[in-house]
């Protein structure tokens, strides 16, 4: 897999943080767990239930040494997050997230959670547990 980084951009690989000092392309020659800087959520941005869940799954990916502890937090937070939503798209997405995390695929779980951010934003903006329905 080839990854292109801009000068100053960071990448998290197997728990290590690397920063490019200039534009660079790197090739990963074996399986590695990585997260690009633009997909890293800062703690101060974990302001909604899905963003908090994302932050915990991100911790599993970024810090493999503490993954067991983060997985315990994930299980509790996941259950609370599922209970907080009645929107079918979010609930189904969260079921998928649990399956992916359980299968050791946190990177894929992060992609699913990110895809649910717009739905969550619409729910929050509407002040209800379900997203507004659109007229046909």
UniProtKB/TrEMBL annotation:
Q: Which UniProt keywords apply?
A: Bacterial flagellum biogenesis, Cell projection, Cilium, Flagellum, Repressor, RNA-binding
Is Transport a UniProt keyword of this protein? Answer: no
- Name the InterPro entries on file: Flagellum_FlbT
- Residues passing through the membrane, by range: none
Concerning Pfam families, the annotation shows: FlbT
Q: Which GO terms describe its molecular function?
A: mRNA 5'-UTR binding
**Extent of the signal sequence:** none
HAMAP family the record matches? FlbT
**Record function comment:** Has a post-transcriptional repressor function in flagellum biogenesis. Associates with the 5'-UTR of fljK mRNA and promotes its degradation.
| UniProt-recorded name of the protein | Probable flagellum biosynthesis repressor protein FlbT
């Amino acid at each position: 897999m080839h990854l292109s980084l801009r000068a100053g951009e960071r990448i998290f690989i197997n728990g290590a943080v690397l920063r490019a000092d200039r534009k660079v392309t790197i090739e990963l020659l074996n399986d590695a767990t990585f997260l690009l800087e633009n997909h890293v959520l800062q703690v101060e941005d974990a302001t909604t239930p899905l963003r908090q869940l994302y932050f915990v799954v991100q911790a599993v990916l970024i810090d493999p040494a503490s993954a067991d502890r983060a997985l315990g937090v994930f299980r509790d937070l996941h259950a609370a997050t599922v209970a907080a939503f009645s929107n079918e798209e979010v609930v189904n997405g969260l079921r998928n997230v649990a399956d992916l995390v359980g299968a050791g695929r946190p990177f894929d779980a992060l992609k699913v959670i990110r895809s649910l951010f717009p739905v969550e934003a619409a729910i929050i903006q509407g002040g209800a547990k379900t997203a507004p329905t659109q007229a046909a």
